[in-house]
C-alpha cells in the first residue's frame, strides 16, 4: 500500500492521510501557553484602559472642554499593518488648541519603556507640544492585586530614566502626575490649566 498525501489549497503537500503514517502533532509547551495567555490578558487590559480614557474624553466633550476628538488607528490592509498612526487620541480643546494623548498600559512590576511609543507617535506629541497644546501620556501600571495606578504625564517633561540602552518611566517617579480613581477629567483640566 502506497502513501496517500493530501494537498492544501496552495498546492503544497501536507501530512499523509493514512492514519498509520500520520506525523505526531506538535504540542504547545506550557511556557508558550502561559506567554500567549499573558499576551491576551495584556491586550484586554490595554483595550479596557483605552475605553476608560475614551469615556472621560466623551464626558469632557459633553462638558464643552473638548471641541472634538478621535481615536487614531494604524492603517491596515486585511490583518496586516501598513501604516503607523500618530498618538492614540487627538483633537481640539474648546479654545481651538490641539491636544494629543498616547494611551498605554503596562504589566505588573514592569517599567514603561520609551520604545513602546513609535516614532510617528512621538512626532505627533512633539508637534502638539510645540503648537502650545497638551501632549500627554495616559499611563496605567497594572497591579497583581487589581489596584491599577494611573498617570497623566506631560510628554515634554516626562521624567525618563536611562537604564543601560533604553529610557523608561517608573511608577515611583510619577507621583506628581498620578490620577486618583474617577479623577481623569479633573487631572486633564489641571494639565490644561497648567499649560501642559
Topology (elements, then pairings):
Layout: E1 5-7, E2 13-16, H1 30-62, E3 66-71, E4 75-77, E5 80-83, E6 89-93, E7 98-106, E8 112-113, H2 119-130, E9 135-141, E10 149-154, E11 161-163, E12 166-169, E13 178-179, H3 184-193
Parallel strand pairs: 7-9
Antiparallel strand pairs: 1-2, 3-6, 4-5, 6-7, 8-12, 9-10, 10-13, 11-12
Can you tell me about this structure?
The protein has 196 residues and is an alpha+beta fold. The protein is 28% helix and 30% strand. The mean pLDDT is 83.
Q: Can you tag this structure with a few keywords?
A:
196 residues, single chain, 3-stranded antiparallel beta sheet, alpha+beta, 6-stranded mixed beta sheet, 30% strand, 3 helices, Trna Endonuclease, Chain: A, domain 1
Overall average pLDDT: 83
Distance between the termini: 77 Å
Based on DSSP secondary structure assignment, what is the total number of beta strands? 13
The CATH topology turns out to be: Trna Endonuclease, Chain: A, domain 1
The backbone outline, from C-alpha atoms, is: globular
CATH class: Alpha Beta
Number of domains: 1
Order of helices and strands: EEHEEEEEEHEEEEEH
CATH architecture classification name: 3-Layer(aba) Sandwich
Strand order of the largest sheet: 3-6-7-9-10-13
Rg over alpha carbons: 23 Å
Share of residues in helices: 25-40%
Strand content: 25-35%
> Helical region count?
3
Largest sheet: 6 strands, mixed
Structural class of the secondary structure composition? alpha+beta
Show unreliable segments. Answer: none
